[in-house]
Structures are given as structure tokens and as C-alpha cells.
Design a protein that fits this description.
Structural class: alpha+beta
Radius of gyration: 13 Å
Strand content: 15-25%
Strand order of the largest sheet: 1-2-3-4
Number of helices: 2
Largest sheet: 4 strands, antiparallel
Shape: globular
Number of strands: 4
């Protein structure tokens, strides 16, 4: 039996559902480009530390030189 875990990040009036990849403002979904959402998710998941450019590029743009 597996359990479902939702990963929500809350900041101000916003919530970021990491599993569904949806940004909510006061509970309403916002239209956000996929790459923008990946950048936001990366930064939120690494809150409190600097995300190096190389790490961000690898995660969001893995096939780019």
C-alpha cells in the first residue's frame, strides 16, 4: 500500500503544488509557462541557499549548451 504525499510550498498568498506543478494565488490556479514554473520550483525547493547557475541550467534546461 502506497501513501500519497503532496508537496506544497506556501509563500504569502501563493501556494506551489510541486507534484501537480501548479501555482495558486489565493487558491486559484495561475497560468505560468512550464520553464518559469520549473525555475520557481527549483528556487523554492532550495530556499535559504544560493542556487548556482549550472545547477539551475541542468535542472531546467538539461539539453542546452
Amino acid at each position: 500500500m502506497s501513501s500519497l504525499i503532496n508537496h506544497f510550498y506556501r509563500f504569502g498568498d501563493f501556494s506551489l503544488d510541486a507534484d501537480q506543478k501548479v501555482l495558486l494565488h489565493k487558491g486559484k490556479p495561475l497560468l505560468v509557462a512550464p520553464k518559469v514554473l520549473e525555475v520557481l520550483l527549483t528556487l523554492v525547493q532550495h530556499s535559504g541557499r544560493i542556487v548556482e547557475k549550472e545547477e539551475l541550467m541542468t535542472r531546467v534546461w538539461p539539453d542546452t549548451f
